[in-house]
Amino acid sequence: IRAVGKESLVELDRQYMWHPMMPYSASQQPMVVAHGEGPYITTEDGNRYLDAMSGLWCVNLGYSQKSLAEAASEQMLEMPYYPLTHTHKPGIRLAEKLNQWLQGSYRIVYSNSGSEANEVSFKIARQYYEQMGEPNRWKIIARYRGYHGNTMGALAATGQFQRKYKYEPLAPGFLHVPPPDCYRCPFGHQAGLCQHECANYYEQVINWEIPETVAAIIIEPVISGGGVFVPPPEYLQRVREICNRYGVLMIVDEVICGFGRSGQPFGHQNYGITPDIVTMAKGITSGYLPLSATAIRDELFDVFRHDSEYAHLRHVNTFGGHPVACAVAIKTLEIMEEEHLVDRAAQLGQQLKTKLTPLANHLHVGDLRHFGLLAGIELVADKETKAPASPEFTAAVIAECKKRGVLIGKNGDTVRNFNNILTLCPPFIITDDELDHIVTVVKESIAKTTEQGVTA
Ligand code: PMP
User: To which protein family does this belong (predicted)?
Assistant: First the structure.
């Protein structure tokens, strides 16, 4: 490959690559990211940014953990690859460690992405009911606004229309219930003054569909990427009770909420529930290598604990549980344990919440939502009507933050023009000062965008 300067890299990118969720326009130049250090990234042209999104919600330990690179290199030299149709030490040791983090007894299946971990969970739920002699239980209930991945099943589970409508028909058998959106309650209630209709809705759908046809629900502890929708405290317990009542398995998607993001090892642990299946990815290696896992409660696994061919796991993949990725995951979890980073995430999350609170008074800030070190800022044109801020306003705030050296994210619903939720998901290794700086920049950027008269 030729040595090329920054300009030609962009040209080559334009010539050869197609990026997700990026407009194909000459005016929109992608950042050519060259270097990472702590929570900062530097581009080929020398701009440095504080990454308040941890890449894509995953680089929880920041960009310069040398010991992760060493763990990868040691494993690569020792035994670079073998499939998990047999077994290997990093895979076994990681499975043991995941059980400690899950605080329960689970059986682990590895794969390569959050999407695939969810696909595995759907297969296991259906295979479980096949084994139990209830083959008609194959429906899976998810939520509007939730995101569960990009593959035909995980996308079918996703409740964000803008991501799926170009690719339909997707996998059949997925249903959706309304999200616990306490700001725009789908049932018209005020936050805190409801009977948790959004949780009870599961029961109605299960009954309408006939319980004997429903295999599982899939749920994030908090809808994270979809806009940081934090449910009422009782919500997950209520959903767990409904699942128990109808024999429906509860799959908890911890792809973003897991590995400390919520201030607990896993997001669901904040709500005192035990999932039947847990899916995880992203933070498992702090984003350093692709790896995901699906954990099945040991008691459920009992039905597969025999040699009949029907009990075999049919989901085979080449790279799932790659030994190098497993070695990096073990090291990631060790670093978090040694440096008490789950507690640190909880502490930083509390600080973030306190510091963002005054923003609630801003003319265009409709709602502030938090879950550990994860925040959503919902921008509105009008606080009274809750009309969402325009995509131009939200984009201008993000551009202003970038100008000031801080990268933040956004989410919403581009089809209905609800693309108005700013997201913050910084790495756990940031200092108090860096956290202050992120908040200051976000506040200044919202103020500047308003002053400039961008139509909200
Ligand atoms: N589940 C959730 C909650 C996610 O946020 C994501 C990705 N953002 C996925 C699943 C899919 O993960 P991946 O992109 O690794 O396939």
Answer: Belongs to the class-III pyridoxal-phosphate-dependent aminotransferase family.
Compute CA distances 340 → 133, 254, 260, 271, whole Å.
45, 20, 10, 21
CA distance 434 to 448: 21
Interhelix angle for 89-102 vs 323-338, to 10°? 40
Task: Set out the domains of the chain in order of their start, with CATH numbers.
Answer: 6-64+340-451 (3.90.1150.10), 66-338 (3.40.640.10)
| Cβ(280) – ligand 1 distance below 6 Å | no
Q: Ligand 1: which of 282, 285, 423, 425 to mutate, most ligand atoms within 8 Å of CB? A: 282
Query: At residue 215, what is the residue type?
Result: A
pLDDT at 23: 77
**What number does the ligand 1 atom closest to the CA of 150 have?**
16
Residue 254 CB–ligand 1 contact under 6 Å: no
Is the shortest distance between the CB of 252 and ligand 1 below 6 Å?
no
Query: Helix 391-403 crosses helix 432-451 at what angle (to 10 degrees)?
Result: 130
> What tokens were used for 241?
């009770």
Whether residue 281 has its Cβ less than 6 Å from ligand 1: yes
- Determine the Cα–Cα distance for residues 108 and 39; give it in Å rounded to an integer: 31
Whole-number average pLDDT of the chain: 95
Q: What is the pTM of this model?
A: 0.97
CA of 149 to the centre of ligand 1 (A): 5
Terminal Cα distance for the chain, rounded = 46
Q: Note the ipTM here.
A: 1.00
The number of the ligand 1 atom at minimal distance from the alpha carbon of 281 is: 15
pLDDT above 90: percentage of residues in the chain: 89
Q: Which residue has the tokens 């002053």?
A: 451
Cβ atoms of residues 261 and 267 within 8 Å: yes
Does residue 1 carry a pLDDT above 50? no
- How close is the Cα of 115 to the center of ligand 1, in Å? 6
From the number of C-beta atoms within 10 Å of its C-beta (0-12, 13-18, 19+), residue 337 rates as: middle
